[in-house]
């Protein structure tokens, strides 16, 4: 089945196709989300990541998103139920909306836990919200149904784009010519059977780096074509199993393998969906309207345009992206750098000249401190929090906060990160260029 | 269909050709040759040539402390008092070599907290001691009693009271024996556990977060940062407060703070550079691992830079010719200089060393991506 006929006529995009790939996507995505949420809860992460910390790092403009105390568990419960309902296609619009909002809220509670795959989940849910993935093989209609072809192509484009952008992000000299960060990470897996013994070898670091970049850049295309698709899907499975074995990346491999199924034609999906949903009696079939509201098309188009453009926002900012990280998140920059820092803060009370260094563990969990130590927006937010803290608790009206920060990137020696002479309380949070960082001592070429 | 294929093929070929061109046109600037580093040999050396003998030496010293304390409780004379002071001093020094090794067999018993939480709660310690009946001691396993036991409490009772005061109270001397007994029991358990479990500990040369090497490196860095840098120097010197706390130095009643600091620093340096506990041999170590990975800044090896901060801190501390408590009172600047030198070492150990050895600092059980 050609999915990239060209030039793509509008009639092709609007032409009818089976909802099956979309229904599979909905079903698997919902079920995997339910499993993920149970796993998150069972691992005690609600407690350790959201309830134990006294302070939370927030996203710009989302400061009001906070953990809800013991109700956080209810939020996870709600999200879990919504995920299952979404999977079944029960009250699909509402369940998907609730899932999207609750999951996104959870992720926004503390950016310490930011992961690209959490962002992927939020965005995939948003896209599903705009598509009638419940039209067939669902609670309200257990049989097949037709949808305009663009509705199946949209998630395909989104998933393909995630891979392709992840690949583009790897086209830099650190990844390709220093094999970083894999040269640092892979030797940690030498105890694995069979491949373990190679993972300290330099050539293996390069082989993995180049293969990874090539995989990300090309796999969406190989998945598009009937002749290459079976092999490509096999590669998808092998690739994600490998990443799962090598790195602690949780549910992400399963989600991406499931997502890649969207590239398969309806006939393949139906082989599973028809027997599965055929067990259920045909429910009162809602008449399927062939017309989709124009605003849905517009919103999906806007969504895709937004996704295509957002990763490029880093071009606005001068300096090394890996260093200042302005425009790093929400851009599919996955497994791209090994960055560690050590950041301490000295407070000065100008009223009496008193100065003291803060013991970060009194304010942050080890995880928060670790994430804070190398990310400028975290450093700034924490510095502001410290000033606020001493104002509130020690009645010191304006405490100046200076950072002593050392950061190492991709195996380079650590270097001073934040300008030590800048009182961070005078710096504003925002999207403007950060001017209180010292420049990166090296150059990384590439996208 | 065919044109789409053509576009696709062209794109793929283009990407491949581009990548190939990039590869051939650039020199390999990656990390150095990385034939296999024998983590098992490193772990074996660290365990059997440092950890096990260090725990044995500490346990022996603590056993001697317990004996001296019992002898003093039986006959509180000057000779037994002198012996007790000596035994406490030796035990405190021996402790410094195991303090940063709270992994494996010594991980579960809160050894560090129970042995050396300072400053000690003098008010409670003396009150408990004076009313000691032989059975009235607090439950020493409770975290709330960490600052009422161990070497700091003994330091206070033995050095914070005159011999006459001690001689006048059998409760006091009996309680000293009791506290010494607790220290010795913990030490002996740890040493025995190490002696019996060392082999299995050293046999896991894995790289997971809970693998021995990762735990050792993490506790080494943790101790360097929190105990050596902050506890022994930074906190008394007022780094973390707007005033100094000279009374918060380690072993303030014996005035041994400087000697204990130097002993701890020396132990860190020995362990880092692979010097055996008996100083007679050297073996594979973190320093050796870093050299093997060829980690350097310019021409200077990272291992040498870290050892440089140990040496720098050592000479700064040696130049202090009084106790840390007095030095803090007289001129805290010299303490702050010492702190700064240690801080340099902590950055190198916690950031550069840990990144090079691919060991996660403060491992957190959460997903990455």
Describe the structure.
The complex is a heterodimer of chains A (447) and B (369). Chain A has 447 residues and is an alpha+beta fold. Chain A has 17 helices and six strands. In chain A, the strands form two sheets. Chain A has a four-stranded antiparallel beta sheet. Chain A has a two-stranded antiparallel sheet with strand order 1-2. In chain A, strand 3 and strand 4 form a beta hairpin. The longest helix of chain A is centred in the N-terminal third of the chain and has 23 residues. Chain A is globular, with a radius of gyration of 24 Å. Chain B has 369 residues and is mainly α. Chain B has 14 helices and two strands, in the order H-H-H-H-H-H-H-H-H-H-H-E-E-H-H-H. The chains are: A alpha+beta (447), B mainly alpha (369). Chains A and B meet through helix 3, helix 8, helix 9, helix 10 and strand 3 of A and helix 1, strand 1 and helix 14 of B.
The number of distinct β-strands of chain A equals 6
Report the portion of residues of chain B in β strands: under 5%
Average predicted confidence as pLDDT of chain B: 89
CA-to-CA gap between the ends of chain B? Answer: 36 Å
Describe the global form of chain B: globular
Which ranges of chain A are low-confidence, i.e. pLDDT below 50, for 5 or more consecutive residues? none
Keywords:
heterodimer, A: about 450 residues, alpha+beta, four-stranded antiparallel sheet, two-stranded antiparallel sheet, 17 helices, about 5% strand, B: about 375 residues, mainly alpha, disordered N terminus
